[in-house]
Amino acid sequence: MSEMERYRDMYFNDCIDLLKNKHSYRKHVDKFINYLKIIELDNRPRVIDKGVVEDCIGYYSLEKGELNTRSTMEAHLEALKSFYDYLSRTDKLPDIFTDYDYKEYKEAIVKKYELSEPVERGSFECKDIIKILSDTEELMEQSLEGTVGIRDEERHLQRMIMRLFIKITLIAPAKRNVIGQIKIGDFEENFKILNINKIKVNVPCGLSRDIIQAIRYAEERNGKQAGKSERLFEFIYRYKGKFTDESLNTWFLNLLQDIGYIEKSKRRTYPVEPIRNGAISIMVNNMVNPLLISKITGIGFSRLESQYYSTMKSEYMDYLNKNVNRAIAQNEYYSYI
Description:
3-stranded antiparallel sheet, 17 helices, 3% strand
């Protein structure tokens, strides 16, 4: 065990109460220690400084596609600040997060790794979603007609998975990791129903067809039939390598560049969250019952209200007011009043 791993374990053991409320701290500190092992600094703790932390964020953002938004970067920094606060308080190591402007430090990282794209905090509109899907379908048809090499086959497989991921997100806007872990056994009636977040979601015929085609494609290349316990995306990608949820951000960037939706740049990833945000926004605008939105998305009422309902247009507020009054008027006591 390296010196930094030993310090990490002490932090985890001594700060149990803190970590009960800060669940993500364990994950982020583990990421940092793993990075130190990669660059062989895990046994050289006094060499580590804020520059190493910055490089760590760059590694996970550009290479792994895991810290690709301002919020995830800030969560990573907060965890490491807590870790070094503990090391400093217990006289194990000096605190590297001292004598600097924290806000400026964060802004420099955001700018360096391009973490603050406006769409990353927003959502796709319906017309954008339809265009992305339409252009993807056309691109996939073209790729099947041409000569297929190893690189072309990899790209085709990425597009196949992204098409499924986008469509499933649109009918069931759950979190990325929830959709990424869907099992083949979660589908019923020949892929016409999807069980997700304890809700049975009807799957459109076109999407059922796409799922079946993708599974058959993978079965042929994997040399085995898909079992109900198989995770859908893992099985489809298996003959090429290991599927991870983080891969989706890289593949989404490739797709958006290939269809010309965005220009090529030095970015390595593009977040898929705006797809989900767009689907939820459309449900809100269509006045879907918030309870139903909360159940399928896994988002609590308070966050739904602050993130989606606070920006509703006046006509939707009028609609909401009328329906609230209608619901109250239906009660027996109303006529008595």
